[in-house]
User: Which sequence fits this backbone?
């Protein structure tokens, strides 16, 4: 709230703040001064104050369920459990769980190696690619080497 | 109807006529400000006496009604201050008697106005002013942030007194 704001904005803001704090606006000296300086607002102010003092304790709408209850109801829905099961299945398939049975035959070491010739240059003579099988297990250590070229 | 500015050539009779014309608005204001109608009548008398004494210094170029309402408001504030300084009378108040017919009429009118508000605003207004629920309690009830509750409540308050009624 700044002094450059119009008086009616200041009045409304101050009045609402008083009412929010359950304070009688007539106990706010600055608000009273503002009202006295702008008597054109007096009738509307008095009307509002009087009406708010006479708001009847009418029945209220039923309260919304608490957030905890709403979270529980989400898990209780069948489709949410289905979605959860599908997500787990997709994740397990991607991760390879449960682990596939070990492949018969060679399970470690170099599986294949290809030699790719490249045009002779000043520094590199050949380039090649190596493929290895990696079995995920508790004692597996993955070591990767890369040799891009061999010096002449 | 506004009595408008008082003519520059204010005579006693013209000023009296102006007061007579403007009195219903002043009475209306004081009836709304004062808790008891008797107090409103006292403050009205006080106001009329005060402005009669000031009639020579009255600026005819100013809005006469605004000047009168301002004087009435100041008299009301003085009256309120005096009442607060006095000890409260030790008398038994019967709750049934305390609900005056004008209060019941006003409650009915407020109920009618409330019915015209959107449901959420009505519920917040009734909860806060009718049941005395806090902003936090209302926020929990409606699953809304407190600032949102405040915004709705402020809007509801401003919408409530749309059509000021005349009591004269």
Assistant:
């Amino acid at each position: 709230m700044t002094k450059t704001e119009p008086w009616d904005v200041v009045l409304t803001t101050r009045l609402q703040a008083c009412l929010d704090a359950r304070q009688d606006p007539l106990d706010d000296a600055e608000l009273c001064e503002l009202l006295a300086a702008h008597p054109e607002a007096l009738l509307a102010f008095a009307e509002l104050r009087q009406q708010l003092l006479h708001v009847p304790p009418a029945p209220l709408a039923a309260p919304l369920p608490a957030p905890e209850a709403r979270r529980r109801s989400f898990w209780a829905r069948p489709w949410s459990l289905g979605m959860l099961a599908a997500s787990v299945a997709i994740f397990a398939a991607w991760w390879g769980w449960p682990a596939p049975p070990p492949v018969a035959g060679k399970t470690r070491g170099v599986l294949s190696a290809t030699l790719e010739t490249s045009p002779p240059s000043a520094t590199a003579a050949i380039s090649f690619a190596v493929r290895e099988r990696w079995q995920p297990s508790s004692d597996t250590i993955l070591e990767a080497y890369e040799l891009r070229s061999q010096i002449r | 109807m506004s009595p408008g500015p008082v003519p520059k050539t204010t005579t006693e009779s013209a000023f009296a006529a102006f007061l007579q014309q403007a009195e219903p608005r002043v009475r209306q204001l004081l009836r709304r400000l004062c808790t008891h109608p008797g107090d409103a009548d006292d403050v009205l008398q006080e106001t009329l006496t005060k402005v009669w004494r000031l009639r020579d210094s009255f600026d005819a170029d100013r809005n006469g009604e605004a000047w009168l309402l301002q004087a009435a408001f100041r008299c009301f504030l003085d009256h309120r201050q005096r009442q607060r300084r006095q000890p409260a009378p030790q008398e038994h108040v019967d709750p049934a008697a305390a609900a005056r017919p004008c209060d019941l009429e006003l409650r009915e009118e407020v109920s009618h106005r409330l019915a015209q508000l959107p449901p959420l605003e009505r519920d917040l207004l009734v909860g806060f002013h009718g049941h005395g629920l806090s902003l936090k309690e209302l926020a929990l009830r409606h699953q809304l942030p407190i600032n949102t509750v405040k915004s709705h409540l402020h809007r509801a308050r401003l919408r409530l007194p749309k059509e000021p009624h005349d009591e004269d």
